[in-house]
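During the practical work, I selected for study one protein's amino acid sequence and its backbone structure tokens, as given directly below:
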Amino acid sequence: MLLIHGMDSHYFVFDRNSFKTKLTSLLTYFVIIPFVYPKGFSEYFLVYKNLFITWLYFAVFAVFILFISNVRNIKYKKSHCIIICYFLYMFIDTFVIRYSFENALQKIFASPALYFFCCILISKNAYLFIKSLANILIVLFFLNFFIFNPFFFDNYFDPDRLHLLFIGHVQVASQLGLIGVFIGYLLLYRHNVRKASKLIVLSIVTMIMSKTIASLFVISCLLVGFTYISISKRHYLLQLNPIIYLVLTTFINVIFLILTYVVGYKFSFLGEPTTFNGRTTIWRNALELVSQELIFGYGAAGVKIQVYWSMLTKDSLGMYYAHNELIQELLNGGIILLALFCFVIFFHIVYLKNVKSKKLFCFSNLSFFIFSFIMIFESPTEYQYIYIFLAILAYLPEIENSFTTYLLDYFKLNYKRKWL
């Protein structure tokens, strides 16, 4: 702390720690916002889209500088090594197959930048990162519901007709909403009830607005799971090794894909024929592409999936989005990339065993199970939100320890004040 004597004989206090914290907070907003910015208007206004893309480039450069300056201070985990291998292989595979990174720059370069930024910030100041991310999501969800609601902007946003909300395509609502609820739960753990309540409510409202099966599934699982955690004393179903949930959801995923490939576009689910809102059509066509390049795939954004409704959309050539993470990895890099992705997930959830709080461990398991189930019907790696979630999972024991230390200091301080 410095005391600076001014011309008017007043002393100005300069607190270096406070200044450093504010600077870190500004950096967090500067980097995170272009990754989670509301993409709804980018479908209509090129200037709006280019503005955030340019901002994203600057954010990635800032992360690069931050990483270089902290390269010796970072406590490296196994999860860091495997995710580097994952992106490095994607880079090499895409370049060798395509000789280009067109439409894949964000996926190959921006995503790892976001991941390592989250890791660095969480390790330095976990609460600052969690609070800043919560503030961004609260503003985003607030604007999505109260300002840019489809009721007022039906020409731009309509989940039924246009499959679009202010936050972006309706398919991102389940991912962002789940992360919002998870962040809210962490804030509750630190006794920041007011901010946590706002974020959780807005996250659920956002998922309801999307009117997607994935979002309704997330809400249902969260309600059932949270009730189970609150009522049950042993929480046995949510105290299993998280690897079990990964194996279970992967098994369900494989069964769905086998049925789609063997039986056809429609198969019976709970006694009724279903296509999961057209997803089985996408999966069937995508699996045909996978069978042609099973080992190395097509490189990131290397092939488009053709479906019968492509001619009805603005992109008549098809789409990159497979609506299934397993298929997405096979298309982007074949069996090798899929294996690396499985290792990425594995080496991020193994750290959950070090979480001491039973309820926090159970809710983390529940959130991971839901997110891994989302990967059956969506492709989270095509967006960047999953890397925020993975970074938090890997550092959850450290987050818990920092929050516990804060709470102990807080209660000790209040106890002393009470008896002074």
The first strand starts at residue 2 and ends at 5. The first helix runs from residue 16 to 36. The chain has one domain: 2-419.
